[in-house]
Amino acid sequence: MAGSTARLARVFFAAGSIALVSASAATAATFKSDSGKLAASKVSGVTASGGTLAFTGSASPTGTPKFAGQIDFKTGQATGLGAPGKLTLKHSGKTAVLNVTTISGTTLSAKLGSKSLTFPLSYSGATTTPNSKFTSVSVSGVAVNLSSADASALNAALKTTAYKSGKKFGTLSYNGIDRELIETKSGPLALCDDTNFDLQNAANGVVPSPISPATATTACTGSHDDGHGISFPENGKPLGFIDTATNTGRITVEGGIEDTQKSSSTVGKFTSPFFYVNGSKSALSALVFDGPVPLGRNTVATVTAPPKAKWNESGGTLTVPADGTTVALNTTGEVLLNTAFCGGASMTCADPYSAGEAIGYSGGTTDFK
Q1: Which of 25, 178, 196, 261 has the fewest C-beta atoms under 10 angstroms from its C-beta?
Q2: Contact at 8 Å (CB) between 315 and 73?
Q3: Cα→Cα distances 250→71, 106, 305, 323, Å
């Protein structure tokens, strides 16, 4: 995974909330969960209740990430952060329910009935505290102020004159847990051929070649490969990501491998690979084609991936030791290759394929932000 560069980290919120205690991001991060509370500043005659702002998101190596927004590790500023939650205000028998929707830049957006409100935010007095491993961050002391429209809407709803334009409405605090970082277009990731697998392909008359933009490489120097392999550019956005808390995620690459057996005129293609980084369950999937016929995305191999991670406020790197990651056929990969090149159940090829056989080896470093 040679030297990919990455973008702003996204933050999923699998569960949790942020706090608005009512009274642009350069190095942002994404999280699965967040917590806090929204409580209104004391205003004469007004009572407040509720205020928990909950975030939801998801991120699994084989699933589709759901991004809730970003938080800057330096300034604490949020960007595009979906923050659904309710704050209920009461005054003299009147009730106003403030439905918070989004925190982005220097604005907190909310709905009051059918009216859209935008509360100005000030980070000048805010405190931003990442944890020591840069996998979570806490932000407190963000001032939530009133615009003229905000003050007018609240006063009208509650039949009061207590809210004034330019005055402080409250204080916002939030924290993000389970930081997610994004892989971006760069790379390449090199898959170095296993010597025995190359001999097996040769015995079966199968010739592999790269599918553009992947290219052949002779830079493989591991102890188990034959010096040859294929380099895949990393396309990263929007599907490549890593969870810094668990070091699980997905590395996405472009191009593929085309296997041709001249004796049968059979062509099999494996394109747009995904490397699922998931500990002992790591795997490789690809879009599979039998000649021109698409067979969909199939998980075709297992991957032993002992990554070493190093995270900082800007992002970080995920490193797999050179020659340290074995890519091996799984049962699906075995069936696909034998069906295409060995006559299926008749096993007419010289050396049928078996699950567990090493295809090759991968190593290097991918950058994330």
Answers
A1: 196
A2: no
A3: 21, 32, 12, 20
Confidence band (pLDDT; 50, 70, 90) for 284? very high
Phi, psi of 334 (to 5 degrees): -60, -50
Token digits for 270?
């494996």
Q: How many residues are present in the chain?
A: 369
Tokens describing residue 242: 């890593």
The confidence score (pLDDT) of residue 79 equals 81
pLDDT digits (tens, 9 = 90+) for 106-120: 999 999 999 999 999
CA distance 43 to 155: 12
CA distance 232 to 253: 6
> Whole-prediction pTM value?
0.71
3-state secondary structure of 57: coil
Q: d(Cα 261, Cα 134) in Å, to the nearest integer?
A: 50
Element (H, E) at 254: none
Rg (C-alpha) for the chain, rounded Å, is 27
Is the distance from CB of 84 to CB of 110 less than 8 angstroms? no
d(CA 189, CA 219): 12
The whole-angstrom distance between residue 52's C-alpha and the CA centroid of its chain comes to 25
pLDDT of residue 67: 63
Buried b / exposed e over 5-43, threshold 16 CB at 10 Å, is: bbbbbbbbbbebbbbbbbeebebbbbbbbbbbbbbbeeb
At 153 the three-state DSSP class reads helix
